[in-house]
């Protein structure tokens, strides 16, 4: 499998784990990386390594008792992947849909990811993920806090 496809698989594995409520699985993808909660983050918005990323999702994302998931469906699209040796970059879009017993199926947030990747011992890993928010809907059933922008 070529490098771009392996990296694309990481993008989709992230979505698969987060939708399953598998925060350990998400965190594993960032064993050698970090997530920036915003561009030019303050130190408290950088979540480093497996434990930092797992902690971020535990603190922010609601999981429902009946199935342990956030009842979301993350769609990652428009991935533009550029590989140079053991490093790579990717720009992609995300759309998160959600349905709960109280919330009909709807998009709740859209935006883009700017990711970098690096190869460690022959395997691709996330290096840095920066999340950019573009549109916000009703996040009250998804997040454990308010962005203050829900409509």
Task: Give the SSE map.
Layout: H1 3-19, H2 23-29, E1 34-36, E2 46-48, H3 49-60, E3 72-84, E4 87-98, E5 106-120, E6 123-136
Helix pairs in contact: 1-2, 2-3
Could you characterize what this model shows?
This protein has 151 residues and is an alpha+beta fold. It has one domain (3-136): Nuclear Transport Factor 2, Chain: A (Roll). It has helices at residues 3-19, 23-29, 49-60, and strands at 34-36, 46-48, 72-84, 87-98, 106-120, 123-136. It has a six-stranded mixed β-sheet. Helix 1 (3-19) packs antiparallel against helix 2 (23-29) and helix 2 (23-29) packs antiparallel against helix 3 (49-60). The longest helix is centred in the N-terminal third of the chain and has 17 residues, at 3-19. The model has no long low-confidence stretch (mean pLDDT 95).
Concise overview:
The chain has 151 residues and is of the alpha+beta class. Helix content is 24%, strand content 40%.
Which spans of ≥5 residues are poorly predicted at pLDDT below 50?
Answer: none
Per DSSP E runs of 2 or more residues, the count of β-strands stands at 6
- Taken together, the total number of domains comes to 1
What is the topology, as strand order, of the major beta sheet?
2-1-6-5-4-3
CATH architecture: Roll
Mean of all residue-level pLDDT scores: 95
The span between the termini is: 43 Å
Number of helices: 3
Structural class: alpha+beta
CATH class: Alpha Beta
